[in-house]
Write a structure and sequence with these properties.
Number of helices: 15
Strand content: 5-15%
Order of helices and strands: HHHHHHEEHEHHEHHEHHHH
Shape: globular
Structural class: alpha/beta
Radius of gyration: 20 Å
Oligomer: single chain
Mean pLDDT: 93
Strand order of the largest sheet: 1-2-3-4-5
Length: 309
Amino acid sequence: MTRTLDCVYGRPKGPLPDDIASTRRLLGMTDESIRRDICELTQWLRDQPNLPNTLDGVELDWWMENYLVMNKNEVERVKDNLPVYFQLKTILPEVMTNRDPKTNKEMIKGYDTTLLGLVPTVMDGGRKLAVYMHREDTPTSDYSPAGIAMHLTCLADLYLAQGIDHTKLVLVVDMRTVRLGHLARYPLGLLRRFFLYAWKAYPERVAQIHIINPPAILSVIMAMFKPLLKAKIRKRMIVHRHFETFLEHVPLKYMPKDYGGESPSLIELHEAWRQKIIDHQPYLKNCSAKHRVVDQKANVEASENNMSS
């Protein structure tokens, strides 16, 4: 049964969950530094005439704290990236509109032709493991990169609302089922805009990208994607011809049980996030509709209402 959650997200009462608290410690954040930086950032936000003063569906201080985590606890980095977060709804309307896994055909195709699992257990150093692959026995013509892009932005929006529990991602790309037909499905214009703007709006840190089971067409894949990546990310890509070399970087126990690990299966992890995004549609619709640039008059009225309340 689908349960739709409609609430306002905020900082948990009492102590933070262990992984969320650990993430802050790893970034050098303290209660005092968080209060100081959030005060500065919320005031800065109020001074921006074209950015919203409040965020529907989430307490602004809590959201800003998580955005600070996503930006490596760097205040100036937040100020640089935050306008792009609000502009993204107009820069990438085909990604940021109607992100509903039950009704959006592109999202449905994305979910039904791929598997993307986020392993719940956080590894040492605050690293979170993500595993991605194309499903076997699904036609390449059904693959939807736009649907995957929608899913990724939903993941990021929910982490910003509920609490970020990691400092960086370790991405495992299992390429054993990749075919040339998948590459033909990528709209290059959308791909460029997504890598340029979405990654700035949601500046998730990527520690490593591990490619396992590389196919014969690996050089074609690399030629397509490498130019879109920053030089520092390209240097963090590692191709593994043998699974044993991959295990030198990621302990087997963290991998899904499909690979011999102790985590839930890849499809279980994938479907859990699909359901989570369905459950949190009210908030995600708020993000698309309200977390965007506004005109100056609307911001002035919002400020006056906040002052009078």
